[in-house]
# Entry
Amino acid sequence: MTKPLNVIELECSACGKKYDPATEQHLCTCGRPLLARYDLMGAKATLTPENLKTRPRTLWRYAEVLPNDPPVSLGEGMTPLVHAKRLCASISIRCPSGGLENLYVKDEGLNPTGSFKARGMTTAVSRAKQLGAKALAAPTAGNAGGALAAYAAAAGLPAVIVMPADTPSANVMECQAFGAKVVKLNGLISDCGKYVAEHKDREGWYDVSTLKEPYRIEGKKTMGYELWEQFGGKLPDVIIYPTGGGVGLIGMCKAFDEMQEMGWIGTERPRMVAVQAKGCAPIVRAWEAHEDSAQFFQNATTIASGLRVPGPLGDLLMLSMLRRTNGTAIAVADNEMLRAGRELASLEGIFGAPEGAATVAAARLLAMAGWIQRSDSVVLFNTGTGYKYSEAWQRALQV
# Structure
């Protein structure tokens, strides 16, 4: 197999051990995720603002800092950044700090398959196909499964999607429509992950689980590159991000480091905010306890299926990045998400997933506390469309 020209090595995020990207790699021998490294000095010669103007408006426009495989693409990326003026005014009411002036929503629900998961799957599936994968498998809380099923179908590869029995019905149906094999288990995504781990070698599956292969991060990090473009070569002051497995948060911080090395930005970083559900908040609990790692969150429950990740593999990375960026972690209740989701929809015309709505509730809490200042530019991430959450929205209409 020819070594990819862009990815020069894979590096363990914990111990620093190096791996060859020309062969299939998953976790480091120490059990921690691997990160793709590039020749960024070479990349910056052609990855320039001037060249970006002429490139297709998909995430593959950042080709120099992505695996240079033939893309399995459905047109993902370059999602809208909406200046949410009416929502901004609503949050500012009765806010002792003066509220907010510059609030934006990055609407990832407009990606293929309706969520930001498309970003990670386009790069992961493209790489897996080049590495000779015969079948792809992953546990899912919902949206990742739908995205994997879609990109596997586009790549001509079979997929096995393992999901909790109470996964939203829309996610189950889309996986089946894409031709994937769906396995339902009684339990949480952690139980589904154990199932994949126990069966993958015997069944010959390429494991595309969160952070158990290096390339989903690479697609997710393009959210950071897009923000830089959409803010005219700058970055916002605050990014509020719904955090389950945390790949989006990790990926954006990786993008900012790459941008600095290429000379696009300096040492400044947006203050990153990890938003979780009160019923499943391992990162918030670790953050508040000033811990470097998170403990498994027992009896996890929330209507935001993407936030129901009780034992995230990326806990060390997330907590480190929150500290590096002077960020924070905050949990919101399910009923707060539902109210915020109705507010986002009725004021801005964005029908968000409960995970995205959680960022609206978090922004209000942080503005009330004065953690966000009036002059700060703030980006909320709606990570998925609300159309896949009919069960949750039936409850919202009664909130």
In short: Residues 189-203 form the longest helix (15 residues).
